[in-house]
Amino acid sequence: MGEQEETPKVIGLLSALLQRAAEQNDLRRGRRPEKISVFHGLTRPTISVHSYLERIFMYANCSPSCYVVTLVYLDRFTQRQPALPINSFNVHRLLITSVMVSAKFMDDMYYNNAYYAKIGGITTTEMNFLEIDFLFGLGFHLNEPPRINRKICATARDLRTFLISRCSDWWYILHADDSN
């Protein structure tokens, strides 16, 4: 067999952003109204966000730009659904759903819902419900303006700038402790 493909930097950045957002929102639980949704698990998954995202990367064969679009979709979803902040009970389901939706929208070839469900460790029925709720949560707004699409295409070259300019809330969450 050939060498395993090296994990792109976007995977590390995305997992760090999501892990930090989940931790910050876990600390804020109870301070603001939160609704429970199909994305919430009964318990916190034992797999880390980083390991989960590496698993998705290993088996989903998505393009690196797909992961940047995943972040854009999650950012948009949380802005449109403020009562559903990313936390440790929903981050994994939101992540697999966002990756699947972005792969279907961005990539020429992608797998079916049953395959993504298997990658994510959930049932196909649950994956189907998650996809529907996610799309409604986004208002079916999947396309990005051309200026954002150009930035997404330049992912490998300028990911850090893209994250700062498009997802400043996420970026500040990630670097909130850097001043210490």
Description:
By secondary structure, this protein is mainly α. It contains nine helices and no strands. Helix 3 (64-80) crosses helix 4 (91-106).
> Gyration radius, to the nearest Å?
16 Å
By DSSP, the count of extended strands is 0
**What is the arithmetic mean of pLDDT?**
80
Largest sheet, if any?
A: none
Please state the structural category: mainly alpha
Low-confidence stretches: 160-180
Distance between the termini: 46 Å
The DSSP helix count reads: 9
Query: Helix amount, in percent?
Result: 55-70%
Percent strand? under 5%
SSE inventory with pairings:
Elements: H1 9-27, H2 49-60, H3 64-80, H4 91-106, H5 113-120, H6 124-137, H7 146-153, H8 155-166, H9 168-174
For this entry, give a set of tags.
mainly alpha, single chain, 180 residues, globular, disordered C terminus
Summarize the structure.
This protein is mainly alpha-helical and 180 residues long.
